[in-house]
Amino acid sequence: MEIARFASDALELEILPEAGARLHRLRAFGHDLLRTPDDPRTHLDDPFWWGGYVMAPWANRLEARPTEALGRSVDLAANFPDGSAIHGQVYGRAWGQLSDASFGVRGGGDGWPWPYDVRLDVAVTGTTARLGLSLTNLADSPMPGGLGLHPWFRRPLEAAIHGASVFTSNDPSPPLPSPVTGEHDLRTLRPFPTGLDATWSDLAAAGVELRWPDLGIRATMAAGAASTYVVAASPPELDAVAIELQTHAPSGLRRLVHGEPGALAVLAPGESLRLAIRIDVGRDQGLASLR
Fold first, then answer.
1. For the segment 4-56, what is each residue's pLDDT rounded down to a tens digit?
2. Are 23 and 140 in contact (CB under 8 A)?
3. How confident is the model over 70-101, as pLDDT tens digits?
4. Domain count of the chain?
5. CA 77 from chain center: how many Å?
6. Eight-state DSSP code of residue 44
7. Would you say 12 and 29 are in contact if contact means Cβ atoms under 8 Å apart?
8. What is the DSSP letter of 182?
9. What is the CATH number of the domain that holds 32?
10. CA–CA distance, 175 with 250 (Å, rounded to integer)
């Protein structure tokens, strides 16, 4: 399987164009930060639980049943044991390499009645990786749309999610968020709780902080204004935690239809939705927060 590599002295990123242009490896100072399989082809056989992948034209879960939206019928098949249509349509498809640092794929159909393009632009410089995602509506009518990145970060992991509100469950996702309390209050860096599957909103500019105490590595992950939600899942049976930047909350199509917050965006013909993600890594020097 072809691997596209982007590296500096401190940081290495490997992309698999044939497997959804996914992040196979993110290595800082010689240490893997993602849950990375020994064989890259594992991503094709087991696409949801390894590395980091682009989610489009929606992120997280949509209901797998006929839904009328923007004058068209969306009828997605379930692809997850909970009966949902999860993580979009491009996470396992073969993407084309548009240039040395750009990848793209065209999607649509299979119950999603709008054609679209998705693009990923990659840059690694010094201790920083930049991932630019875009979703473009190719239809002749408005299209709902969403973007996200789904990395599985290795445990043991400490994290801080600077969100003041939380949708306490992703399945089902409640219509409205609640103020963070208890184990959902992650505004201070600490070991990530096991068994959470929730979405944080009302994010502070600080973004997400990550720390691997056994590796002596810290990182920050932040996005531009388009990203207003952080989804995190920490299944007890897995040696990793998913911490995902997304442009909308789970059940984004239901939210659009019913006027709930966190809905999919509405893209005019030819319009693009963008999500710019920046990951900065460094040697651990204690528990200093982002400023």
1. 999 999 999 999 999 999 999 999 999 999 999 999 999 999 999 999 999 99
2. no
3. 999 999 999 999 999 999 999 999 999 999 99
4. 1
5. 21
6. H
7. no
8. G
9. 2.70.98.10
10. 10
Question: In the chain, which residue ranges form alpha helices assigned H by DSSP?
Answer: 42-45, 252-258
- pLDDT for res 285: 75
R_g of the chain computed on alpha carbons = 18
Domain of residue 33: give its range.
Answer: 4-283
Q: Could you give the maximum distance between any two Cα atoms of the chain, in Å?
A: 54
Query: Could you give the 3-state DSSP secondary structure of residue 132?
Result: strand
Is residue 290 one of the residues assigned to a domain? no
Is the Cα torsion angle 195, 217, 230, 113 positive or negative in sign? negative
CA atoms in the 13 A half-sphere facing the CB of 202: 13
Contact in structure between 256 and 266 (CB atoms under 8 Å): yes
Look up residue 70 and give its two tokens. 């923007």
Q: Is there a domain that residue 288 lies in? A: no
Whole-number Å distance between alpha carbons of 31 and 226:
30
289 domain residue, yes or no: no
Place of tokens 């999610």: 161
Both structure tokens of 134: 């875009």
- Residue 197 within any structural domain of the chain: yes
